[in-house]
Amino acid sequence: CTVCPPGQRHPGCTAVADSHCCADRNCIDCEAAASTCSRCSPPFFLEHETGTCVACSVCAASAGEYQAAACTATSDTACHACRPPTQYLVRQASTGTYSCANCTHCPAGQVHPACIPTGDGPCCTDSSCAACPDDPTHCTACRETYYLESGTTGVAPRCRECTVCQAHEGQYTQTACAPTADTVCNTCSPSLYLTEDASPTEHGGASHNTRTGMNGGLPPPVYACANCTTCPPGQDHPACQPAADSQCCTDSYCAHCTEDATNCALCFPSYFLFKEQNENFFRCRPCTRCLFSEAQYSISACTPT
Description:
Elements: E1 27-29, E2 39-40, E3 44-47, E4 52-55, E5 65-69, E6 78-81, E7 87-91, E8 98-102, E9 129-131, E10 141-142, E11 146-149, E12 158-161, E13 171-175, E14 184-187, E15 192-196, E16 223-227, E17 254-256, E18 266-267, E19 271-274, E20 283-286
Antiparallel strand pairs: 1-2, 3-4, 5-6, 7-8, 9-10, 11-12, 13-14, 15-16, 17-18, 19-20
């Protein structure tokens, strides 16, 4: 008698007939006909269209696949794949099963081990860090507008925000913020004031900030030191400041013009304040001199107004 594969359920060897083994060695039940299988042995399932046993699929964890449904007697394994770069495959240690996990969303601009089908990408601990290839707590490069400050013994390097020189306080950028050094600010020397300049190459007092993004993506303004204007002697006016030139009175005969250089508040002696009908500011006019040679004399002296 023919010996059928172990586990097969089939018409056995009789006195007048040989063993009726199933035609498919992976079939375990074919009582009706040897070529027609009704049940397969694991890990095979019965494919109804062909009536044959087909090997159950094995989900490939290396390709980011996980088993969503196990192989049954009549259906194949259901494999699902995670969706990189937003998902990756993770194994549950307690059950040995796999599932998809969402990739961590690191701050924009960070360069780190990207989220891949077999593992998540560790974000840098410092959100200002742009690169931490070996250790999330150990930064090797900072994002724009930050510089890497060297760490001390036992302390990792960290990102510090670049100093922005305050032009309104008379500061200009002497040395731009670099990947490993902060901005160096300087001020103009006395008798000079800071002004925005269109030709920085002609002045030694200002320099561009070479790192992008320091001024909203636009080229940073360029400053230079300029000589303070010397106003006429005796004028009381806003003097030259670190970030502003002397505000001399427009009228050289004006002695005081605090708020508006064109509007005089007090004239020098021998001049008085006068305003034309079609003007909204005062100016100085010379006092009239009575002429003795023409028999004139002064009824009232010239006053400030």
